[in-house]
Amino acid sequence: MHQGKGLSVGFLANQIWSVAGNENRSDFNSFYTQIFLSHSYKSGASLGVNAEITQNWEGNTTNISINPSIGAVTKFGNQVVQFNIQPLIPIVGPHESRPDWGLRAVLSFVFPGS
Fold first, then answer.
1. 65 CB-contact burial (10 Å; exposed 0-12 / middle 13-18 / buried 19+)
2. pLDDT tens figures, 11-50
3. Alpha-carbon distance 109 to 89, whole Å?
4. Cα separation of 37 and 10, whole Å?
5. Do the beta carbons of residue 63 and residue 92 sit within 8 Å?
6. Which residue in 12, 62, 70, 86 is deepest, having the highest Cβ count within 10 Å?
7. Residue 109 near residue 83, CB atoms below 8 Å
8. Cα-based distances in Å from 68 to 51, 65, 88, 107
């Protein structure tokens, strides 16, 4: 991740696979990454976009969504909070499992250090 002058850019990634367990259960082998870009303004508002990519290596399926976001940091009484809303727009994925759309809403309580 890199941050500077209100801009945040970076990615998260993980790979999960099964290594033991019930022999009758299917193996699990999945990769996930999220690439993100966000700009925060002095007012506390922010605009951004991210892409989420999931690869199921066992099932040979890929899901990709593009997710624009709008958010802000503000106060509810004395409590600092950050909120964010994101429509989830699927662009790649098997027809059987790909949703038409989605919506993510986030509320985070912020406890600044002294």
1. buried
2. 999 999 998 888 888 888 999 999 999 999 999 999 999 9
3. 27
4. 7
5. yes
6. 86
7. no
8. 9, 10, 8, 17
Over residues 61-90, the mean pLDDT reads 96
Closest-CA residue to 52 (of 31, 71, 33): 33
Rounded distance, CA 53 to CA 89, Å? 12
pLDDT above 90 covers a percentage of the chain that reads 81
| Residue 13 contacts residue 35 (beta carbons within 8 Å) | no
* 35 token code pair: 């690439």
Tokens of 88: 């989830």
Q: What is the mean pLDDT of the chain?
A: 94
pTM: 0.82
Nearby residues of 68 by Cβ (< 8 Å), 6 or more positions away: 47, 48, 49, 86, 87, 89
